[in-house]
Amino acid sequence: MTHTGFPSQCSPNSDRCLTRRIQVDLQTQQLRLIDGENRILRFPVSTAMNGPGEESGSGCTPRGLHVIRIKIGEGLPLYAVFKGRRPTGEIYNEALSAIYPERDWILTRILWLSGRQRGFNRGGSTDTLRRFIYIHGCPDSEPMGVPRSHGCIRMRNGDLIELFDKVESGMEVDIF
Fold it and tell me: Can you name the CATH fold of 15-175?
């Protein structure tokens, strides 16, 4: 089977989408995968250095109810580099980092989020999807548990692969 790294989608009415959801706690910088009433996974994350906010160009992490719109990167290797949501064919390493020291690295997998609350995180200048807000991997040198991103939710690459395999497009994501 050939893996392209391009979007995969599923029905938002699948059993997994109905019972599982993601919670991102901006205060504790933690992401939790919840199944029914049970927490099944918990990971440290890094959200926006500028704090919470919904406006385009703010560099803030949007709050409220979202869904995973598209999963990108299935089958790609650990540390695969993305630019514009497309795999570049590069694998992140220190040498590549030295060549592009200012790049905001998006690695391994992307969970592209879409807001569900019209006027708050969907539509107009507050649209999460149009702001290109993702849950994505980052270099291991980036600290977790500390707000350092430009608005996205950063995760450790191994943690992201574990999460990616347990979620589907259409699954609810609550950022608070």
Answer: L,D-transpeptidase catalytic domain-like (2.40.440)
